[in-house]
Amino acid sequence: AQSVAQPEDQVNVAEGNPLTVKCTYSVSGNPYLFWYVQYPNRGLQFLLKYITGDNLVKGSYGFEAEFNKSQTSFHLKKPSALVSDSALYFCAVRDKYSSASKIIFGSGTRLSIRP
Amino acid sequence: DSGVTQTPKHLITATGQRVTLRCSPRSGDLSVYWYQQSLDQGLQFLIQYYNGEERAKGNILERFSAQQFPDLHSELNLSSLELGDSALYFCASSTGTSGTSYEQYFGPGTRLTVT
Questions:
Q1: In whole angstroms, what separates CA B33 from the centre of its chain?
Q2: Which among A43, A100, A104 has the least Cβ separation from residue B106?
Q3: Closest residue of A to B40, CA-based?
Q4: How far apart are CA A63 and CA B113, in angstroms?
Q5: pLDDT digit string, tens, across residues B54-87
Q6: By three-state DSSP, how is residue B85 classified?
């Protein structure tokens, strides 16, 4: 069975500093990995995905994520945080060989950027 | 704007009642997914439809049912409502099951309050 863990409920970062939001996953085969962001009272917005190829994936709003197969991780990063990055971030995984495209979401990490 | 629409935005109803939530996927998307988001449970996958057929089931209660119509819009029916059913219900869509587009695009959600 596939699963995803976001070990931190909350991450606090000062504006201008680099940020990392952690994610680890478990699938029986090769994973498809995703990051989504949710702003207050809004639906989830797709940020980036890893399907295959380069382990460093670049996405929207200056975010990137690094796929690490040996550590089964897919941490979200940004070199310089903005106050507007404050939101709820979800990591998600899908088993590449699953017949259904069901995606399993992590519990979410609330990112708070202080000015 | 993701292109996924959901109606209504807000719904307030009493325990024991039945409601229907509606979702229209992005143009061209064949798969529709329903999720429930509550404060203590996070984002829970309920059910997926692909081109009118049920494709995957998650933590969906027997009191809940869904369908996808020939025009690809979907409805989620919630019956015998309980206080604990109060949550945000999201619909998402993607192009297919094992097709080339893997990410899901989320609607703005329906906030259900059961009193």
A1: 6
A2: A43
A3: A107
A4: 35
A5: 988 888 999 999 999 999 999 999 999 999 999 9
A6: helix
Residue A100 has pLDDT above 60, yes or no: no
What's the pLDDT tens digit per position in A1-11?
778 999 999 99
Kindly list the residues from chain B whose CB atom is less than 8 angstroms away from the CB atom of residue A42: 108-109
**Nearest Cβ partner of A101 from B31, B42, B105?**
B31
Query: Alpha-carbon distance A104 to B43, whole Å?
Result: 9
* Identity of residue A15: E
Tell whether A89 lies on the interface with B, counting CB pairs under 8 A.
no
Q: From the CB of residue B93, how many other CB atoms can be counted at a distance below 10 Å?
A: 25
Distance between CA atoms of residues A82 and A61, nearest Å: 10
Q: Name the β-bridge partners of A13.
A: A113
Please name which of B55, B98, B49 lies closest in space to residue B70, comparing C-alpha atoms: B49
Q: Is A46 helix (H, G, I), strand (E, B) or coil?
A: strand
Whether the Cβ atoms of residue B4 and residue B110 lie closer than 8 Å to each other: no
**Exposure pattern of B60-72 as b/e (b: 16+ CB <10 Å)?**
beeebebebeeeb
Tell me whether residues B55 and A46 touch, CB distance under 8 A.
Answer: no
